[in-house]
Specification:
two-stranded antiparallel sheet; 2 domains; alpha/beta; 15 helices; Dehydroquinate synthase-like, alpha domain; seven-stranded mixed sheet
Length: 358
C-alpha cells in the first residue's frame, strides 16, 4: 500500500527557520540545489559505498573527504578542511553540503557557524542516528581533548534531505546505535510510542514504512522540545536523558562503544539510579531495560573503573559546582533534572551497576 502520509515539515528557529524533506532521489536534489562555488563535505565511507550517486558531482566540484571519527571533531581535526575551503575560493555566499552521519554533521555545522561569521549549509544525513535525531535541533559540537562536545553553539542547516536508502548499508552496531538514540525520545514521549518501537524492532530494518514512521515520530517529539527551548536552557535539557552517563562511557572507552549504544546503557543507568532514589517504579525500569538489552547486546562495562567514570561525569555540561545535573525518569513521558551529590551512596549505586548489571 502506498504511504500517503505527509512527512515533510518545517522547524521554527530564532536563527532561521529550516525545512526537512524525505526524498527518494538524492541526485535530483543535488542537481536542483547545487550552485557553482558550493562545496561538499562527505564521509569517505559514504563516498565509497555510493559512488554511483555522488561521483558525477565529486569529480566536477570541490569536495573534502573526512574519516568520520572523533579525532576530526576537534580544533586540530578541522584545520585541513578550513584551509582547503579558503584556498579553493569558497565565499560567504556559497553553500556547504554535508553528506554523512553525526560526526560529518558536527564538523560541517561548526565550520559553517564560524567561517566568515556564518555560511549556509545543507545536510544529507546517512545514518539512522542523524536521520532520526541530530539532523534537527541546531546544535554544533566539537570535542576538546578526550571530553566530548565541549565546544559549540547553535547553527541550523537551511534544508535537510532524508533518504532511507542510505540505511540499507548500515552495520548492525550502527543501526542499533541509531535506535538507542531514538529511544530516549520515545521513552520521554509515552509508553504507546515505546511499545510501537519495541514491537517492531525485529522487522524495522527491512520494513521501510515502519522505519520511516519511527524516524518521523522521533523527529516530531524532538521538534516540540526544540521549538519551545532552542538554546537548551529549560525543558530541552530533558533530552539529555541517558546522555550524561552515555557521554562518560564513550569518553572513557575511547569511543569503542558507539554513541547511541552508550546512550541506551546510559538510560538504563539513569533508570537504575531513579529507582534507588524512589523516583521510578522498578517494574517500569525493568520493562524498558528488557528492550534496551537488545540494543547494547555484545557490550560490557565490566572493565570500567568507578573513579574514571566519576571523573568523566564531572565534566558534564549540566553540572553545577560539584553536583551532577542528571536527567532522571519518573515514568514514561515524565523526567526531571536532579542535582545529585556524588557522595558515597551514589558511588555505591554506580559500583553495584558496573559490577552486576551489564
Amino acid at each position: 500500500m502506498e504511504d500517503t502520509q505527509a512527512y515533510d515539515f518545517e522547524i521554527k528557529s530564532r536563527i532561521n527557520n529550516y525545512s526537512l524533506y524525505f526524498t527518494e532521489d538524492i541526485k535530483e536534489i543535488l542537481l536542483t540545489e547545487f550552485e557553482e562555488g558550493d562545496y561538499f563535505v562527505i564521509d569517505s565511507n559514504i563516498k565509497n559505498i555510493y559512488r554511483d550517486v555522488f561521483n558525477d558531482f565529486l569529480n566536477d566540484y570541490n569536495h573534502f573527504e573526512i574519516e568520520a571519527n572523533e579525532e576530526i571533531k576537534s580544533y586540530e581535526g578541522i584545520i585541513p578542511l578550513i584551509d582547503d575551503l579558503i584556498r579553493k575560493g569558497f565565499k560567504k555566499n556559497n553553500k556547504l553540503f554535508s553528506i554523512g552521519g553525526g560526526i560529518t554533521q558536527d564538523v560541517t555545522s561548526f565550520i559553517s557557524s564560524v567561517l566568515y561569521r556564518g555560511v549556509e549549509w545543507i545536510f544529507i544525513p546517512t545514518s539512522l542516528l542523524a536521520q532520526g535525531d541530530s539532523c534537527i535541533g541546531s546544535k554544533t559540537s566539537i570535542n576538546f581533548k578526550e571530553f566530548k562536545n565541549q565546544i559549540g553553539g547553535f547553527y541550523p542547516p537551511s534544508k535537510i534531505y532524508i533518504n532511507l536508502n542510505f540505511l540499507t548499508s548500515l552495520p548492525e552496531a550502527d543501526f542499533n546505535s541509531g535506535l538507542g538514540e531514538l529511544c530516549h525520545y520515545i521513552i520521554l514521549s509515552s509508553k504507546q510510542d515505546f511499545d510501537m518501537v519495541k514491537d517492531c524492532y525485529d522487522l524495522v530494518i527491512n520494513d521501510r514504512k515502519k522505519l520511516k514512521k519511527i524516524i518521523y515520530t522521533s523527529l516530531q517529539i524532538k521538534k516540540g522540545y526544540i521549538e519551545e527551548d532552542e538554546f537548551d536552557i529549560g525543558i530541552r535539557q530533558l533530552l539529555n536523558y541517558g546522555h550524561s552517563f552515555g557521554h562518560a562511557i564513550e569518553s572513557i572507552t575511547n569511543y569503542k562503544i558507539p554513541h547511541g549504544i552508550a546512550v541506551a546503557i546510559g538510560m538504563d543507568i539513569a533508570n537504575y539510579v531513579s529507582v534507588q532514589y524512589g523516583l521510578l517504579d522498578l517494574s517500569t525500569r525493568n520493562y524498558i531495560r528488557g528492550f534496551l538489552i537488545k540494543i547494547w547486546n555484545g557490550y560490557s562495562l565490566k572493565n570500567i573503573n568507578i573513579q574514571t567514570l566519576l571523573h568523566a561525569l564531572s565534566k558534564d555540561k549540566k553540572n553545577v559546582g560539584k553536583n551532577l545535573g542528571l536527567i532522571l525518569l519518573t515514568d514514561f513521558g515524565k523526567a526531571e533534572k536532579r542535582m545529585i551529590t556524588p557522595n558515597q551512596e551514589f558511588v555505591n549505586h554506580l559500583e553495584y551497576y558496573l559490577n552486576k548489571e551489564i
